[in-house]
# Entry
Amino acid sequence: MIANANSRSDEPNSGSRPDGRDTATANAIEVEHIVKKYGEFTAVGDVSFSVKEEEIFGLLGPNGAGKSTLIRMMTTLIPITSGKARIAGHDVQKEADAARRAIGVIPQALTSDLDLTVEENMNIYAKLYDVPAKKRKAAIDELLELVDLTKWRSAQTKTLSGGMRRRLEIARGLVHSPRIFFLDEPTTGLDPVSRVAVWEMLTNIKSNRKLTILITTHYMDEADRLCDRIAIVDHGKLVALDSPAALKASVPGSNVIEVQFNNAPPDWEQRLHNLSGVTSIKHEGAGMYRILTSDGSRTTTELVEMAVHGGVAVKSLSVQNTTLDDVFVHYTGRQLRDELVKAYSFVMPSRPGLQP
Amino acid sequence: MNRMLAIIEREMRKFFRSPALMMASMIFPLVQLLVLGNAFGGKIRDAKLGIVDQDGGTQALKVREAFDSVRANVRTFEPIYYDNDKQAMEDVRNGKIQGAVIIPPQYSRRVYEENHPRIALIVDNSDNFMSSALEGKLTELTNALNQPAVEPRLLQKTALEVVELYPYIEYMKFLLPGSIALAMFVSVMIGGGMLYIDDKARGVHEGYLVTPITKTELVFGLNAAGAIKAVLTGVVITVIGSLLSGVNTLFNPATAVGLLLMIVLTSLAFNTMMFLLMVRVEDPLVPRAIFGILNTLLFFPSGSIYPIQAFPFWLRAIAKVDPFTYAVHGFKALLLKETGLVAVVPDMIYLSIFAVVTLTVATPLFKRTL
# Structure
C-alpha cells in the first residue's frame, strides 16, 4: 500500500488533480464509441462504457464477440480505428506510455518464462516497468506473499501447476502497483479448485489495495461472484450492462424449469405455453424444454398434472432461479457453454514434461 | 536503458538454462567440419583401375611396371588385369572398377617407330573428381614415359615453378573459417529466429508490449541478446575448431583480438539480418522452413567450401552481398594466413555497414502493437 501511494505521487500530472481522481477522471476507464475494423470486418462496433474507480467490471461474451479486441485496444496493444479510450485519464492513443504505467495486464495465454524462476520472472517485469531497485525487492516479497508463492520463489516456473502459474502472472502484473488491472480470461483452463483459489486471491488483493479490475470471462459463476457490474458483448456490440442482480431481474420470468418428456405429442409446446406464468419456451431437442416462468411452483404443478392427464412421461424435471446463464441466453440467443469449445488458430503447444 | 537490459537479462538467463540451444548450434558446424574435412580432404586411394594389355610387348611391360610402382607407393589405384577390353569397359560402366587403361596391339612397335604411340584411358566421367584424379595420375605417368633416356643439356621448355606462401593447408583447415561462421549463423537462426517467433506465438511479446518499453529499447535489446549468444558460440567454436583441425594461430594475442572483433561484428551482422527477415513473421513454422534454404543460399556461396572464382556470375553476385563471404574471408585471413588486422579491415567495415543498414530497415518495420 505504501509503495502504491508513493508511486502515485511520482506521476507528474497527479498534482493538477485535487485528490487525484474525483474531478474529470472519476472513472478509471472511459470508452467512447470505440470501433475496431479489420478491413471490411468490424470486430468491435461503437461500444461505449465506463468503469468507476475501484470497481470490478466484467466483460462477458462468447468467443469472437470482441472481448479480447476491446481489452487489447484499452491496453494499447492494437490501434483503435475510431472512438476514444481513456485509461486513468490518459488517452490510450495519445498518451500510450502514461496509460501503460497505470495498468497491469494479464493476457489470456500463460506467458511467464518457463526456464526462469518465479522471482526472476517478477524481477524482469519490475525492471521493464522501471520499478526502482530499492523498492523492487519489497514489492516482490509482498506480492509473492499475497499470492501464496513465497516458498516457490526460487523454483523454475516450469515446475509450477497451471493455477500457480496464473497466480504468478497476477503477481507479475501488480509488480509496479498499477491503478487498473486487466485480466483476460484469468481462469480459463484451470481446474475448479484453482479457479476458486484465483477468485479468493483477487478478492483478497482488491481488499488490500485500491484497484480497479476489468475482467473478461466465459464463466457465469465467475462473473456473478466477482463483478460489481457486467457488460455482455456479442458480435462486437454491447447488448447489456448492469449489476448481476439487475441483469437477472431484467429477464422476464424469475424461474427456469428444465424438463424432459418421453413421447410428447406434436402440439405439446403450444400446450406448455398456455400454462400460467410462462413467459418463454425453448425446445432444445430430445424432448427437452427450457421454460421461463414468473411463478415456478405453480407452473410446475400444472405441468405435471397436464403430463399425467395426457399420458406423457416426465423423464427429468428441475426448477431453478434465474442465473446469469439465463441472462446471457436472453440477450444473445445462445447458451454460453456452447461457446466454450474454442476454435484456436495456431497455438504453440506447451512444452512437454510440464506439470499439468 | 534499464528496460533494454531487462530484455537482454531474460534472454541470457534462458540461454544458460537450456544448454540444448548452445549444443545444437555448436554441434552442427563441428560435425560438418569433421565429416566434410575428412571426407573431402583426402587424396584418392585404392581406386580400381582395369588394364587390358593387347600388345604384350616390352614397351607395354614398361607401362605395367609403372602402374605397379604406383600401387606400391602412392596407392592412387590398384591395377586389375583383364584379357578382354569389352569386359573392362562393361565393368567401368557398372561401377566395379573406376577406370580402365587399354594398351592397344602394336603399341610397342609404334613406340620404336616413333609413330604416334597411344594408350587409352576409359573413365567414368559421371564422377568428376575421380576421373580427374585418374587423368592427372596417368598424365604424370605418360610424361615420365616420354622422358628421353638422355636429356639434352639445354632445356627448351618453359617450366612452372610454384611458390606456396603458406605451409600446406589441409582441407579441414580450409573449412574451419566457414564452420565458425556457420556456428554463429545457426546460433542466430535458432536463438534470434526460431525462439523469437516462438515467443511471439506464445504471447510473451504481448507481455512486453503492455509495459512502457519503447520500440528502440525492444529492438536493441532483442538484437543485442541474439548477438551475444552468437558471440559465445563463435568463441567456443573458434577454440574447439582450431584444436580439432590443428590451427595454432589462435595463440597469437594480436590474432586472438582480431578474431574476437570479427566474431562480434559477424554476430551483429547475422543477427540484424535475421531480425529483418523475421520482423513481420508470425508463424513459428516459417523460420524452421526457411532454415535450410537460408543455409544453402548464404553458406555455400561464401567461398567457405569452394572458391568463389569458380562460380557463375549470378552466384558471384550473391557472394558479393552475402555477409558470410566477408566473415569467411576475415576468419581465413586471421586463422590460416595470420595477416594481422589490416587485411581484414574491409571485411569488418562491410559487416558493420551491413548490420547498420539491416537494423535501420528493420526498426520501422517492427510493430510496437500486436
Notes: Chain B has a mean pLDDT of 88. Residues 43-145 of chain B form a domain with the abc type-2 transporter like fold fold (CATH 3.40.1710.10).
